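Can anyone check this?
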Amino acid sequence: MQAAPSSHRRPTFARRIRNVGSGLAGILALAGDNRLIGLAGGFPDPQTFPVDVLPELVAQVIENDSEIALQYSPTPGLPGLRDAIRTRLITTDGTAPAEQELMVTSGNIEALDLIAKTLIDPGDVVVVEGPTYLGAIDVFRGFEADIRSIPVDGDGIETSVLDRVCRSGAPPKLLYTIPEHQNPTGIRMSLERRTELLRVCRNFGLYIIEDVAYRDLSFDGRRFPSLWSLAPDLVIQVGTTSKTFFPGVRLGWAVGPKTVLERMLIAKQCSDQCAGAFGQRLFEEYLRGGHMARQLTKSNALYSRRCQTMLAALDEYMPTDVTWTRPAGGFFVWIAVPKNLDANSLSLQSREAGVAIMPGAPFFAQTGGNNNVRLAFSHAPDHQIDEGIRLLAQTIRTSLEIPT
């Protein structure tokens, strides 16, 4: 006689999700925690949210375009927003995608997910920077990719190492990079390194995913050509409005080869079907009204000041054997502590001291980051940044038994 199924039987979870971490969820959980000085999460400052123009934009969209704004949208995105994004890309990248080379997504992370659904089979090799955005690592792990890390230096990803990886074993299918003010290091890829990266990837037939989440947040006015503008047949550029509009509207975009975008649209039909039309219409009006250009001037002034405050505090308080990057944009500083310190333990000790930091290991697809910490200067007020760095330095000194 066959036994009745047990009501207590544990579900068998899909293999694709078993190795995906909870790093992003943990960071987002800190968003509303005011008990700690928050140097862990890369949250935009609410001062940069367009609260002064939003009531007008909302009223305008509701009054004049409610039938579009409150309805489902086409899967590629509303035509008006796609046209506005194309117009902006002419300004930022010097070129514009064709009609079928652009789609609107529900944030940057969905764009990465759609690319992975479209191009990655289990076991495919995907190359990432080491360190890199932990959300991208989780996306690629979720599709059971064989993820290989390539180290970065002051000019960006080390293309000589990439070349060796491509020549040994199974050739990679994809490379993921953040050329501008990288998360987590803050490094900006040099023009020479961009040229070399494109040469290596073209030589071995790799598609490049170019994440431009921080491209507009530049403090020194320097702007190198995007990888997509240099090689539109090879590069899929993904962007987000979370840092330049506000993250409460989950919007992003992808531009790239038509053959890839067509398949991504099929994948999106099996995902959220379409990005929210109301947010799309708001962002379109925000762009067309010139509000984004004005806000970026204010945002970059704010974040530049915060960055300099953090760098000055690091210079003042940190022991001499701690080093860090000096970014010219973005949200993050990457620090290296002595080898006899463990960043995970340091993170716990810092919390006890009242400071939230992000240990480095989750930013590596393989091993690494045990002696690294990511610090975010984007959200904490200036005085809290100074105090947070002082407390962190004090914690490090105590751990190293250095007199304070």
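Reply from J.R.: I decoded it. Residues 291-317 form the longest helix (27 residues).
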